[in-house]
Design a protein that fits this description.
Elements lengths: L2 H9 L5 H5 L1 H11 L4 H16 L2 H13 L10 H4 L3 H16 L13 H9 L3 H9 L2 H13 L5 H10 L6 H9 L7 H9 L18 H10 L18
Length: 242
């Protein structure tokens, strides 16, 4: 099990107190496994320090303003490929079946294309297999990283770390030009347009019903599965993967 993937997953969760309480444990894992270059680890530690020193409600508000109020920063991978079309529903059914074939069974309400969940799944795979699977999301991860950097968000550190774990890197020049030319989608006007669009629901009961962000229940389930197989116990909750 590659715990670095679990750390990256946890850092992209809605910052509940359980996540904040596990930051010391996460830093120890990164230092022990040393799968990330030192500058990338330093950026992650800076994000952890920011989370640890922030008021919880302030950190939560920052997270919501980034990942919940901006569709371009959605942590649901297939939304960047399929939008809200029905193709996304079938893609999630296929991904869910793949998870289950590899031993990861999801709690109700967790959407399989949620990036923190995908990272947790990768933590259960052999490292080279995980790297290759991660490479299939490289374009989306790099796009999210560039958009977060444009907003000068410390969360960009997590996406840079994910890029560092992938086998190949996306060409930066064209990506930066694309992001620089984008119109912000988190303005009040853009949010109004989003709410006016008719939602698409996915009827597969195994996906937990209607589409939408997995919310706090899914985040809590992922943190609950955050476990260290060896060494001294950390402060965060620990449970085995389902």
């Amino acid at each position: 099990m590659t715990m670095t993937f679990k750390v990256l997953s946890a850092l992209l969760l809605y910052p509940e107190q359980e996540v904040v309480d596990s930051l010391g444990e996460m830093a120890a894992i990164l230092d022990r496994e040393r799968l990330l270059p030192p500058p990338v680890r330093a950026d992650l530690l800076e994000l952890m320090n920011t989370l640890a020193q922030s008021e919880l409600m302030e950190a939560q508000a920052t997270y919501v303003s980034l990942f919940d109020q901006s569709r371009s920063l959605s942590l649901h991978l297939f939304e960047h490929i399929h939008g809200e079309s029905r193709d996304r529903g079938q893609a999630m059914v296929d991904l869910l079946a793949h998870y289950r074939s590899k031993g990861l069974d999801l709690a109700t309400g967790e959407l399989p294309d949620y990036l923190p969940l995908f990272l947790e799944f990768l933590s259960m795979q052999p490292l080279e297999v995980a790297r290759n699977l991660l490479g299939e999301t490289a374009d989306i991860v790099s796009l999210l990283r560039a958009r977060l950097e444009k907003r000068q968000s410390p969360y960009a550190a997590v996406l840079r770390a994910i890029e560092a774990m992938a086998p190949d890197q996306v060409e930066a020049g064209a990506l930066q030009e694309t992001v620089a030319a984008e119109t912000p989608d988190d303005t009040p006007e853009a949010l109004d347009r989003t709410w006016e669009e008719a939602p698409v629901t996915f009827n597969d009961a195994s996906l937990g019903g209607a589409s939408g962000a997995p919310g706090c229940s899914a985040a809590a389930a992922i943190v609950e599965r955050f476990a260290v197989p060896s060494g001294p116990p950390g402060r965060g909750p620990a449970a085995g993967a389902k």
